[in-house]
Design goal:
single chain; 469 residues; mainly alpha; 82% helix; disordered C terminus; membrane; transmembrane
Length: 469
């Protein structure tokens, strides 16, 4: 591949379908390695002699809170990177640099505030998330150490979005791979070698996140970076625009976490004496979904600059082609994963569990939950791409409809079939949510978006370069 020095040069060198592969695949691979942060922790923790099942369930209890913390990184990262790319598409280099500098300060301030707020509240928070007395010691140990690494976590994840947005998908991938490999090496050493148990898993994750953050910040400081990290004066108006665009990702992540909390509460209520076992199965299901969702999000995040830049440059045909090829790539991956889990659910469950009865329960839950998984490809291709263009008012209803369906299923299904029936909620919401999103997008959203882009093209014809498809 030829070298480029600006995002504009990258966009002019290749057709859209090539850029989707060039930007999306490295980001996808990076997210595959990013899975190792949580998946490897759970695999090793699940094999701690005597207490592995309890420790694994405790990590599942912590997961919503930890994901909510990471949501701040994506809020600033996706919002800032989208605004930066739109600015570059409009030819405003100075605004792009200011956006990057302000995003750095936002992430630092949020990290300090979150750590200070949650450390003293961790006990009531964990019980609110569905923790039991038996699980609390493990959950508290993991959650406390993870909180202490919040600054590194937010910096690594959030600032990496700006590498991806400038077309440096390979460097973004390397950042994640470095952290994931460090976690893979440190986990067995700290968990088993130093006998730290679940504390070792948390410590390994924090140290790995520190390594990732350092690498990302050094990359963004390189002189050759098209938009280089400089500590610009904090601009409240610009920060509000970053948060406004990124709020879609943040709110949806928070809602996802509330859904997981509700799922744990429902399973404990209707699971009876097997409440902890059902929560363990739910943790296995969520772990598998992470294997599906993280790489898919890597594709849409890596390709986000395609939508942001071409929307800013008012290139309708490029935006339309980007929608198509992102869906094709996401659909191919998610379809393959759905087929694999339906054919071999016990293999995936066996990554986390050893006890035979739990393994059988988790396998059944995986099959029920993933019958409509392909519908998620529609959601990612539409919702994340619209968010990258700053079209939160279009993206939010498409995403929220699926979430509300899921909540409705959580409230109704256990009354009909007990705790086991809860695991059909994912399939029902995925299928109906995808149908709703496709109909609304083609009937309402795309015609409006097309008229807006054509209006700007007619108003400023000289600013648009050639379209590449």
């Amino acid at each position: 591949m030829a070298e480029y020095r600006t995002t504009q040069e990258l966009m002019e060198q290749y057709p859209v379908r090539t850029l989707v592969l060039r930007l999306g695949l490295p980001a996808m691979i990076g997210q595959v390695f990013n899975l190792l942060y949580s998946i490897v922790d759970r695999i090793f923790v699940g094999r701690i002699p005597g207490t592995g099942e309890q420790a694994l369930a405790a990590i599942g209890i912590c997961a919503p809170a930890l994901t909510a913390i990471t949501a701040f990184a994506y809020m600033v990262g996706i919002g800032g990177a989208s605004l930066m790319s739109i600015s570059l598409g409009q030819g405003n280099q100075r605004r792009a640099e200011q956006t990057l500098g302000n995003a750095f300060w936002l992430l630092a301030g949020i990290a300090v505030a979150v750590t200070a707020a949650l450390l003293p509240l961790r006990r009531p928070l964990l019980y609110l998330l569905g923790c039991s007395d038996a699980l609390f010691p493990y959950a508290d140990a993991y959650f406390t150490l993870y909180l202490l690494g919040t600054l590194a976590s937010l910096m690594g994840v959030g600032m990496n979005q700006f590498l991806l947005a400038q077309g440096y998908a390979r460097q973004g991938m390397i950042a994640v791979v470095l952290g994931a490999l460090a976690n893979l090496v440190l986990d067995p050493v700290l968990i088993f070698g130093l006998h730290l148990g679940v504390r070792g898993a948390a410590a390994a994750t924090v140290l790995s996140q520190c390594l990732m953050a350092v690498y990302v910040l050094l990359c963004l400081r390189r002189p050759r970076m098209p938009v280089r990290l400089r500590l610009h004066r904090l601009q409240p108006d610009l920060c509000r625009r970053i948060v406004a665009i990124g709020s879609m990702s943040f709110l949806i992540t928070l809602l996802d976490n509330l859904i997981i909390i509700l799922l744990n509460i429902v399973l404990r209520r209707y699971g009876g004496a097997q409440g902890d076992a059902w929560i363990t199965c739910a943790t296995v299901v969520q772990s598998f979904l992470t294997i599906v969702f993280c790489p898919s999000q890597g594709i849409t995040t890596g390709c986000g600059t395609l939508f942001s830049y071409n929307y800013g440059a008012a290139r309708e045909k490029n935006v339309r082609q980007a929608f198509l090829w992102v869906f094709v790539l996401c659909g191919a991956y998610i379809g393959l994963m759905e087929l694999a889990v339906q054919l071999a659910p016990a293999w995936f469950a066996g990554l986390f569990l050893r006890e035979a009865s739990l393994l059988q329960m988790a396998s059944l839950c995986l099959r029920r939950y993933t019958l409509g998984l392909f519908g998620v490809a529609v959601q990612y291709a539409l919702v994340d791409s619209l968010t990258a263009m700053g079209k939160v008012r279009f993206a939010f209803p498409l995403s929220i409809f699926r979430k509300l369906l899921y909540i409705l299923c959580l409230l109704v299904l256990p009354r009909l079939g007990g705790a086991a029936a809860v695991f059909y909620a994912g399939s029902i919401s995925d299928l109906l949510g995808a149908t709703f999103s496709a109909v609304v997008f083609f009937a309402v959203v795309w015609p409006r978006l097309r008229r807006e882009i054509r209006g700007r093209t007619a108003a400023k014809p000289c600013q648009n370069g050639p379209e590449r498809v």
